[in-house]
Amino acid sequence: MLSRRLAIGTFGATTLAPLGVTAQPSPVTLKVGHPPTETTTPLLYAVRAGLFERAGIKIDLTKMSSGTAVSGAVAGGALDLGGTSLLALIIGHTKGIPFTIIAAANNMATETYEGGLLVQAGSPLHDAKDFVGKTVSAAAVNDIVTLTLWAWMDQAGADWRTLKVVEIPQPAAAAALEQGRVDGAYITGAAFANARGDGKLRTVGKVWSSLGSRYASTAWFTTRDWLARNHAVAERFARVMSEAAAYTNSHPDETLPDMLAYTGMERAAALKMHRAVFSTTLHPADLQPVIDAAAKYKFIDKDYSAAELISDVAPQ
Q: Domain check: are 302 and 218 in the same one?
């Protein structure tokens, strides 16, 4: 957990209640954690617009260093709720960590998804079979990107076990690729838009679609114990996030400043990219492709039903 805490409270002027009017109860404060990524945008908008305030919730948001840090803080009780990669929750479930998803975040597989596998413009690598024995960089190893790369190669009949995935932060990945230190680089978001800007790199296929035409890649979650004690407030949180997701999808320009302030992304870079698509509902079908692939490629010991991970407060 980063030491710097961003406390986001309710907005608007506070006035004294007139005599004879019963004061409203204090809002419930939720300690929430999320890395500095675009996925936070609906929550940031919901705070700014007063949606949480009207739902009787105050958000205390901590900017975390990674999704792994978020998962650990929620599991240990330092955070009430968090947002992280779906794969981390899938793996945690098999290890007995009582995670449960209360709202979807963004979908990875859409036609406007901003990300993919890049190679040098003049590279001889053009399809999955060309990557046998090659090295590809990703922001993290053994995460959903690794899963999609392996599935992409496997579906083409290539030996996915020979692919080496190394961790290189996204801002440095394009340079590593141009310098020949890796054969390919899987980059997302503004870094992807920037990397393609000068024509030195090109995209190889729609690797992200190897798990299906639609699936969730991130989610808002808590533990089953916390949910049992705070069911009503969790239900209100999930409802607000659904409303905020719909608004963010239809108002990308208005919500851009929210995202820039939290992520530190440069405005010029953000304007080059397609914005993420956020989910307003969550169905087992949105999770099952990732769980099935995780079992097939031994991220987890066995397959299971996505319904085991989804709480009853998640909007259907």
A: yes
Distance between CA atoms of residues 200 and 122, nearest Å: 8
Beta strands in the chain (DSSP E): 5-7, 28-34, 57-63, 81-85, 99-104, 106-107, 115-120, 135-138, 164-167, 184-188, 201-203, 218-223, 277-278
Do the Cβ atoms of 75 and 110 come closer than 8 Å?
no
| 142 torsion bin: left (phi>0), alpha (psi -120 to 50), beta (else) | left
Please give the pLDDT value at position 11: 36
CATH number of the domain bearing residue 166: 3.40.190.10
Q: Are 240 and 278 in contact (CB under 8 A)?
A: no
Whole-angstrom distance, CA of residue 254 vs CA of residue 259: 10
- The total of other beta-carbon atoms located within 10 Å of residue 177's CB is 24
**Per-residue burial over 200-239, b = 16 or more CB atoms within 10 Å of its CB, e = otherwise:** ebbebeebbbbbbebbbbbbbbbbeebbeebeebbbbbbe
What is the predicted pLDDT for the residue at 40? 94
Strands 99-104 and 218-223: what pairing? antiparallel
Residue 133 shares a structural domain with residue 196: yes
Ranges of residues in the chain with a pLDDT under 70 are 1-25, 108-112
Structural domain of 188: 115-211
Matching residue, tokens 């709480």:
311
Give the per-residue pLDDT at 22: 45
Task: Based on the fold, state whether residues 218 and 200 are members of the same structural domain.
Answer: no
In-domain check, residue 85: yes
Helices 86-94 & 67-76 angle (0-180, nearest 10): 40
Q: What is the pLDDT of residues 284-301, one digit of tens each?
A: 999 999 999 999 999 999
β-strands 106-107, 164-167: how paired?
unpaired
The structural domain count of the chain equals 2
